[in-house]
Design brief:
4-stranded antiparallel beta sheet, 115 residues, mainly beta
Length: 115
Amino acid sequence: QVQLVESGGGMVQSGGSLRLSCAASGGIFRFSVMGWYRQAPGKQRELVATIASGTDINYADSVKGRFIISRDNAKNTVTLQMNNLKPEDTAVYFCSSRYGLTTYWGQGTQVTVSS
């Protein structure tokens, strides 16, 4: 059973930065596609970024050029560096781990950006 624990959320002013981290345990981390998703109140959960390997990275158009996803296979962690944050980035951010047909989710961490 894969367990994912997020940290690093909080409140920041528009234009600020936050760094989210996700620690994974219990799975085959290095072969898993890791990702970050977010869900704002009243909206569906949406993709933010995924990383399959060091060069296989995918970003939502809304965060391209502002967010950077990275992973450390030695430490079983995935990180989301969020820069130039905007109020519309406010959401609960979830870490995900996909291996084959199974996706695991963390409990989520709140990010609030004030204008």
